[in-house]
């Protein structure tokens, strides 16, 4: 492939990596990872609310990785309140899993920036045959791709398996019991899915430049060497 086309592909990949780093940094700090409604089960059971009457006992809940907001509805109007995971909810939520999610978000931000720099370095500089060269491009991009996938899997596990919304809704609540009525992943969660897709696209762009996948050249050289040995 001509060098001009390689520079163009590497530059596009570098822009994708830089965009992923900025997007991951913004999405990590915003409280728009999950949005849902919470039912005041205690109040609904007291009046045997069904159908449209349940709307008087449905409150809103939205949160991210660091803070969020909830509106409790128990038939007498909404009670809005804000909360933060650190340090308020550390004893309530699965802290180890939550910190792991934040850690992998940091990994995505860091290595997306590193990958972007190496893409531009290989586009306009002289690449080394080390981690800054072809192997490095695959390595950093694969780490970003894997980390963004782990962020989505771990957050979904925390929400669904560990019932994170129920724990947040019942935090510091004595008289009422709240239950998650509906929940859906919000824009920040899907931004990490977009980051995953962009890094997967970067892997394809690296291959389009003519760089072989890792270990492919080594395997071919080993086969050729074995064939030469058989000739002698």
From TrEMBL:
Pfam families: Clarin-2. The chain crosses the membrane at residues 95-125, 137-156, 189-209. Keywords: Membrane, Transmembrane, Transmembrane helix. It is a multi-pass membrane protein. InterPro entries: Clarin (IPR026748). It is found in: Membrane. One of its GO terms (biological process) is synapse organization. One of its GO terms (cellular component) is ciliary transition zone. It comes from the Eukaryota. The keyword Transmembrane applies. Coiled coil: none annotated. Belongs to the clarin family. This is Clarin-1. The lineage of its organism: Eukaryota, Metazoa, Chordata, Craniata, Vertebrata.
């Amino acid at each position: 492939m001509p060098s001009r086309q390689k520079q163009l592909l590497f530059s596009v990949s570098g822009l994708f990596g830089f965009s992923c780093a900025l997007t991951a940094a913004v999405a990590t700090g915003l409280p728009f990872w999950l949005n849902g409604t919470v039912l005041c089960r205690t109040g609904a059971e007291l009046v045997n609310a069904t159908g449209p009457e349940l709307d008087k006992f449905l409150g809103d809940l939205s949160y991210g990785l660091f803070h969020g907001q909830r509106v409790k509805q128990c038939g007498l109007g909404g009670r809005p309140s804000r909360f933060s995971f650190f340090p308020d909810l550390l004893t309530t939520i699965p802290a180890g899993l939550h910190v792991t999610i934040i850690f992998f978000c940091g990994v995505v931000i860091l290595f997306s920036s590193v990958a972007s720099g190496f893409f531009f370095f290989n586009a306009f500089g002289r690449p080394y045959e080390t981690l800054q060269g072809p192997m490095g491009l695959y390595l950093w991009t694969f780490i970003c791709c894997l980390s963004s996938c782990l962020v989505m899997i771990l957050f979904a596990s925390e929400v669904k398996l560990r019932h994170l919304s129920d724990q947040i809704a019942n935090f510091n609540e004595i008289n009422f019991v709240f239950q998650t009525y509906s929940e859906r992943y919000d824009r920040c969660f899907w931004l990490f899915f977009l980051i995953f897709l962009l890094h997967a696209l970067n892997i394809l762009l690296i291959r389009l430049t003519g760089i072989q996948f890792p270990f492919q050249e080594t395997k071919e050289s080993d086969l050729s060497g074995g064939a030469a040995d058989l000739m002698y």
